[in-house]
Amino acid sequence: MRTNSLAFRLFFWAAGLTVAILIITGVVLSSLYRNAVERAFDRRLDVYLRTLVADVASPEEGTEKFPQSIGEPLFELPLSGWYWQVTRLDAVKPEVHSSRSLWDSNLARLPENDTPAASSGGYLKGYATGPEDARLRVVQRTVDLGDDGRYLISVAGEATDIDEDMKSFDRTISAIFAGLTLALIMTTALQVRLGLAPLKRISESLAAIRSGRAERLEGEFPLEIAPLARETNALIEANHEIVERARTHAGNLAHALKTPLSVIVNEAAARANDPLAQKVMEQADLMRDQMVRQLERARLAARPTVLGTLIDVPPVVTALARTMEKLHRDREIAIAVDVPARARFRGELQDLEEMVGNLVDNACKWARSRVAIEVVAEDAAANGKSKVRVIVDDDGPGLSPAERESVARRGQRFDESKPGSGLGLSIVVELASLYKGVLTLDTSPIGGVRAELALPGG
């Protein structure tokens, strides 16, 4: 997918939003799970805390106020990671009693502004650093026994269990979300591909129409794209109708003017010695040339509305060569043809015949004895467009650079002894330009003029 394509934009935004949502969901789930693990851990610490509060507030008769064991062996093992501590706060010098596991260390007091339940008689929960710089989860409660004193009771457990549970959960959820992300991205790519498939089908159908393999968009299209296909078909039909009308009007005009002009010329020819008749014949010839010119322009103007078709070049060139040999039989002009079988022209047959025919006819008029026609089919270049080049050489007198510059102008003739109106090359230039082609004139290897016509291929 190209970066400026609709498919890339849909895929990029869908995949990006999917990944972002999954990341946010993963972070939220990890946070919720940590809170759940901490609450479970705190409930365990709270059980021990309540036991200590009960022992401190109402010690059993004959027992010490500060017990050494609360029913958990871990509090008896030195530096086991589980500790409790009771501190009398109202004494001149705070009295501290702790579990054997705490050894000679003390539990730090949690800052009250770090936890929400920081009121007298309430709980304080948080993290602190314990013996050997271990990270501890601490639960503290302040107990006021009146005359018996005010105490801070703390219970702590090593937070390693919480951290290990979180690491295990994060690894699991990361693996699950990674697989889910991959699956959703692949699903998104598939959805984009299937969702835009009708557009690709329309593109391929338009390419088939342009290449001449089809005449209209065929098949059923989704509801959102059906109007586009319908309007495209309507546009193609309208273009064909415009072209046909233009051709019909041009033909009608030619037919309407041809007979009156012929009558004028015939009448003037009958009075060849009359200066007025000679002037009428001269002007009639100009009128005929201008009529041909304008009709040709009208016909050419209709060409851009036609979607191109693919025409096989070999039969066209071969047929034109045979025709020109017959037309110039009295001069014994030899025409050599070299055209590959795969050469094709993207356009109309009539235009190709007219362009190549004008070039070959012009070469035969000026050639002494030889005309060579070579066709070169070029594969698609970097812009994805192929070309076909038609090269026509003759062994005639040739043209100077200045003459080659002006010979393609309308009605330009350098030798009045040669037949024609001087419109042939200008028509070739205009037809070629409509197909984004070009006609160049140069010196021929066989002595005369080389005319090279570059046109879109297929």
Describe this structure in words.
With 458 residues, the protein is an alpha+beta fold. Among the domains are: 60-159; 240-301; 308-456, Histidine kinase-like ATPase, C-terminal domain (Heat Shock Protein 90). It has nine helices and twelve strands. The strands form three sheets. It has a five-stranded antiparallel beta sheet. A five-stranded mixed beta sheet has the order 7-9-10-12-11. Strand 1 and strand 2 form a beta hairpin. Helix 1 packs antiparallel against helix 2 (160-195) and helix 6 runs parallel beside helix 7 (349-366). The longest helix is centred in the first third of the chain and has 52 residues, at 6-57. The chain starts with 5 loop residues before the first helix and ends with a strand. The model is unreliable at 114-120 and 410-422 (pLDDT under 50).
The backbone outline, from C-alpha atoms, is rod-shaped
Strand content: 15-25%
Tell me the radius of gyration: 49 Å
- As a percent range, the share of helical residues equals 40-55%
Count helical runs.
9
- Give me the secondary-structure category: alpha+beta
Query: How many strands, which pairing sense, and closed or not: the largest β-sheet?
Result: 5 strands, antiparallel
Strand order of the largest sheet: 2-1-5-4-3
Order of helices and strands: HEEEEEHHHHEHEEHEEHHEE
Number of strands: 12
Q: What CATH architecture label of one domain applies?
A: 2-Layer Sandwich
Overall mean pLDDT stands at 81
Spans of at least 5 consecutive residues whose pLDDT stays below 50 are 114-120, 410-422
Going by CATH, the homologous superfamily of one domain would be: Histidine kinase-like ATPase, C-terminal domain
The CATH class of one domain, by name, is Alpha Beta
Quote the distance from N terminus to C terminus: 26 Å
